[in-house]
Amino acid sequence: MPLFLHRIRQDLSASIVVFLVALPLCVGVAIASGVPAELGLISGIVGGLVTGAMRGSTLQVSGPAAGLTVLVAELVRAFGLPALGPVVLLAGLLQIVMGVLRWGRWFRAISLSVVEGMLAGIGLVIIAGQLYAAAGLTAPSSGLAKLVGLPGALAGALGGSASLASLAVAAGTVAVVVGWRRLPSRVRVVPGALVAVVLAALVTAVGDLPLATVRVNGVLDAVRLPGADAFAGLTDLALLATVPAFALIASAESLFSAAAVDRLHTGPRTDYDKELVAQGTGNAVCGLLGALPLTAVIVRSSANVEAGARTKASRVLHGVWLLLFVVLLPAVLAYLPLAALAGLLVHAGWKLIPFRGMAVLWRTHRGEVLVLAATALAIVVVGMFEGVLIGLVLSVAKAAWEASHLRVEHSDDGRGGVRVRLAGTVTFLRLPQILDSLEALPGDRRIVLDLSGVHHLDHACRAALHAWAERHSATGTESVRLHALPETSRARQAKASG
């Protein structure tokens, strides 16, 4: 068989697998975000036909993602569904600008602990919220209220037959998804999520269970082109502040997904700037249609790679299959129980929490675990945008503290004096430690302050060391000698130019 025909066949089969994975997730993410199910399907179609056709990453697949459900739900609850389109549109345009300015590569500089903390916080909020949905209950609005009220809500739900049936279907869905991965590879060609949802629909229908199902209207009727009134709402600074939050979080999730997908295959590597433009274009189109924001999704992308995709044709075709489905078979969605979709999202939220990575970090870099945990906790307690900002501030503060790491060593210089050796980075953050150590030295002995191991000496420390040396020399019988004092950057530049 010619090579190009072999690739076409592989891409075609992979696109069907990705379509089957994406279909229930598009619906589930939309419902978890508090918007009509059709808006998730529209975003999935745009992710395939628009973002999928653009350059950037060859094999990663885009669509509505669980990582943005919390932010979307907060936006819709606070400002209403009409505000979603303009915000997503502006966020997409901001992503395009960042890609054109070649900022995509800089997202790799974001602390991995902050990103994983963000995902863990989102995962906790998703799990808590979807457990209410699994029991047929309405979840509280805030993440903290979801977690605090969950035990009592579930305890009360155990007393009702309808809630028990709903919880059983959700638990069975999770069990099928988890257990499906243990089956032989030839069986796992059919996605476990699709099998779980189909089985849940059959059990609900055959058993005539009193469970709520997906409400489906026409996809074209769900398209909401943002009007002048919707854009007028952007004069509200609180609403406008959500635009960079959407853009930054969607970009970070997409580009970190691209890095993960690149490790799964040996094909062309991701161009981060072009991928950022592709994601922004997709979000701009989603905003014009009033749909959910999209990101690259690691679940669909890994399914695409595992199914043998070779080119971007597979992800474009998955968008084609989604479009054909919503045009020809939308009524099928009405048979899907919401409890099954809640089970899928509980499983997706659980996978967002990096348990294994946290265990490794705890053994090697415990400070990173604290940043991760603080970010996740802040997202649950305060909110998405604020939690990410807190994580970034903590990460920068931790880096600054570690950059100022310093060793102070005392030894006899062999001639009756004391040698004090400083090694590391000497900044104002360590100045109290240095001065306390120096001022504790005897004032009647010659002191050599050895700075040969210092990588950087800032202006505040340089001035303080000179002042201390002058005071010690004025009161003692021997003078202080500053050995190998690092040059200032201006002095080094002058020496280089001379």
Automatic annotation (TrEMBL):
<keyword id="KW-1133">Transmembrane helix</keyword>
<dbReference type="Pfam" id="PF00916">
    <property type="entry name" value="Sulfate_transp"/>
</dbReference>
<protein>
    <submittedName>
        <fullName>Sulfate transporter</fullName>
    </submittedName>
</protein>
<feature type="transmembrane region" description="Helical">
    <location>
        <begin position="153"/>
        <end position="180"/>
    </location>
</feature>
<feature type="transmembrane region" description="Helical">
    <location>
        <begin position="370"/>
        <end position="397"/>
    </location>
</feature>
<dbReference type="InterPro" id="IPR011547">
    <property type="entry name" value="SLC26A/SulP_dom"/>
</dbReference>
<feature type="region of interest" description="Disordered">
    <location>
        <begin position="479"/>
        <end position="498"/>
    </location>
</feature>
<dbReference type="InterPro" id="IPR036513">
    <property type="entry name" value="STAS_dom_sf"/>
</dbReference>
<feature type="transmembrane region" description="Helical">
    <location>
        <begin position="192"/>
        <end position="211"/>
    </location>
</feature>
<keyword id="KW-0812">Transmembrane</keyword>
<feature type="transmembrane region" description="Helical">
    <location>
        <begin position="78"/>
        <end position="101"/>
    </location>
</feature>
<dbReference type="GO" id="GO:0055085">
    <property type="term" value="P:transmembrane transport"/>
</dbReference>
<feature type="domain" description="STAS">
    <location>
        <begin position="420"/>
        <end position="458"/>
    </location>
</feature>
<dbReference type="InterPro" id="IPR002645">
    <property type="entry name" value="STAS_dom"/>
</dbReference>
<keyword id="KW-0472">Membrane</keyword>
<feature type="transmembrane region" description="Helical">
    <location>
        <begin position="12"/>
        <end position="32"/>
    </location>
</feature>
<dbReference type="GO" id="GO:0016020">
    <property type="term" value="C:membrane"/>
</dbReference>
<feature type="transmembrane region" description="Helical">
    <location>
        <begin position="113"/>
        <end position="133"/>
    </location>
</feature>
<feature type="transmembrane region" description="Helical">
    <location>
        <begin position="320"/>
        <end position="350"/>
    </location>
</feature>
<dbReference type="InterPro" id="IPR001902">
    <property type="entry name" value="SLC26A/SulP_fam"/>
</dbReference>
